[in-house]
Design goal:
The chain is of the alpha+beta class. The protein has a single domain (about 1-105), classed as Helix Hairpins (Orthogonal Bundle). Helix content is about 65%, strand content about 25%. The protein has two helices and three strands, in the order H-E-E-E-H. A three-stranded antiparallel beta sheet has the order 1-2-3, covered by helices on one side. A hairpin with a 2-residue loop joins strand 1 and strand 2 (about 45-50). Helix 1 runs antiparallel to helix 2 (about 65-105). The longest helix is centred in the C-terminal third of the chain and has 42 residues, at about 65-105. It is rod-shaped, with a radius of gyration of 22 Å. Keywords: Coiled coil. It holds the Pfam family DUF6788. This is DUF6788 domain-containing protein. It comes from Sulfuracidifex metallicus DSM 6482 = JCM 9184.
Length: about 110
């Protein structure tokens, strides 16, 4: 019974690690930063602002920022999910470490 629970925890931990890896790969392909707009002669122009090498950079997007905005929203969702998964991974790892230490103390 106990070993079944330990095995479930190990399987859950492996699943979380795979999911974290997938999210990190997807985040690498998505932009980071925020959208900044400037109004010039009644025209709205959009820029992607982000940090790179300790400096704030701007990249012109154009007059329509909806595609980049959707990607930034997806990126924010993934970052939140990644934080939750990493926290759960840490808790599971600590629990498994405690089980391992208990088993070692019983055996030796």
């Amino acid at each position: 019974m106990i070993w079944e629970k330990v095995r479930e925890l190990e399987e859950r931990l492996e699943h979380i690690k795979k999911e974290i890896n997938e999210i990190e790969k997807e985040l690498a392909s998505l932009p980071s930063g925020h959208i900044d707009s400037k109004k010039v002669n009644d025209n709205q122009y959009y820029y992607l602002r982000y940090w790179e090498d300790g400096k704030l950079k701007s990249r012109y997007i154009g007059k329509d920022a909806s595609a980049i905005k959707a990607e930034l929203e997806r990126s924010a969702e993934l970052r939140q999910k990644l934080a939750r998964l990493k926290e759960e991974e840490s808790k599971l790892q600590r629990a498994l470490d405690k089980v391992n230490m208990a088993v070692i103390s019983i055996l030796f």
